[in-house]
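Hello,

I think I submitted the uridine-5'-diphosphate-glucuronic acid job twice by accident. Can you confirm which output corresponds to this input? Input:
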Amino acid sequence: MKITMIGTGYVGLVTGTCFAEFGHHVTCVDNDRDKIAKLIDGDIPIYEPGLDALVAKNVQDKHLSFTTELAAAVAAAEAVFIAVGTPSSRRGDGYADLTYIYEAAREIAPHLKDYTIIVDKSTVPVGTARQVSRIVKEVNPDADFDVASNPEFLREGAAISDFMRPDRVVIGVESERAESALRAIYQPLYLRETPIVKTDIETAELTKYAANAFLATKISFINEMAVLCDEIGADVTALAKGIGMDGRIGSKFLHPGPGYGGSCFPKDTLALMRIAQENGHSLRIVEAAVEANAAQKAKMVKKVRDMLGGSEAGKTIAVLGLTFKPETDDMRDSPSVTIIPALIEKGASIRAHDPQGIEEARTLLPQNITYSENAYDACRDADAVILMTEWNQYRALDLSRLGKTMKQKIFIDLRNVYSPELLKEYGFRYVGVGRS
Ligand code: UGA
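Support: Only one job matched these inputs. Its output is below.
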């Protein structure tokens, strides 16, 4: 099928490339000329494992191309996916900013030729697809089109495998034509027997928010259990196993940590709360999950202070990992963006390392951080080391070498990567999350 993808951000680029890999002919459109020029040169603007090779392969096979010329790309397409950004609005009220979605609808409308399905891929509040449909009809009353919702469930760092081996595909459609177009697009998943969940459009829109809010709640739940474990001397990793093996609960997303971050959970939980409020309800469980997440970050600061004997002032702290999770360069709403400034404010000096995030970190974190070449360099003369993000590079550190470079052997493992016993063997004072 001929597919046009509007927006070459994270979702648009990964989805467009994977559709090309399926065998469709995909044109990715963006109004950012620099970005398109770079993509044409094979320069991928984000770090996502495997994406550069997949883009190069599909460009070479002539299944994937990049352009700023929206008109021609839309006119030639059987399906147009809208994958532009929906950030939290600048008013800071939690609402999703839909400016880019509606702009895209206005720009697409005049160029629609034969029957076209317009698909919302971006995460958008309930009612957005209907609004897109209204805009298209207003601009081009003769257009032959359907609007559908097809939310994405891609995790950064694992987006390509999530796309190629999804647990399910959700399609929100209102006509048989739209349904069969979307089924044809996802036909390559047929062999894997991937379930296609067909819903109405509003349900599909809400499903995306509900999925992210549920996962965020699951994380906040285990983080609160971890706090309780710390208090009473229990072990949260064993507890997570004990509950996770119950099929009704499931073992995934039960890893305690410094709080969830990223471009999705923080933004989508707030947007879902706003959707509920507008409809006269409050989602108290989601509200509690959001509050618990903020509290978790604050508790991590306290954990560091306690390990340093009650004060961070004058101490040098090494931080390993800055991004909100491994295998990404994304720093948006990363716990490090809250925790590090709080430590600096109390007088700590920070030496940090991250395999991919340093460039973005420089723009988001205080200026007086020293960025190191590697983990050992970051730990030199440090009073404590915080393992903030569980990159593979930090999972098998040479603990004897690390210990020799540090002023005090204090290891604060905010991702429970190491066994407390092992760290003790190497003479470290160790604290994890919920394993005291
Ligand atoms: C999330 C969802 O997992 C995707 O399904 C969804 O498509 C995506 O948002 C989106 O809306 O676009 P992502 O934000 O990339 O994906 O990353 P996750 O792997 O979900 O992790 C989010 C945060 O939760 C990270 O900070 C991670 O460290 C934290 N986390 C995750 C935990 O603290 N514990 C866990 O057990 C799992």
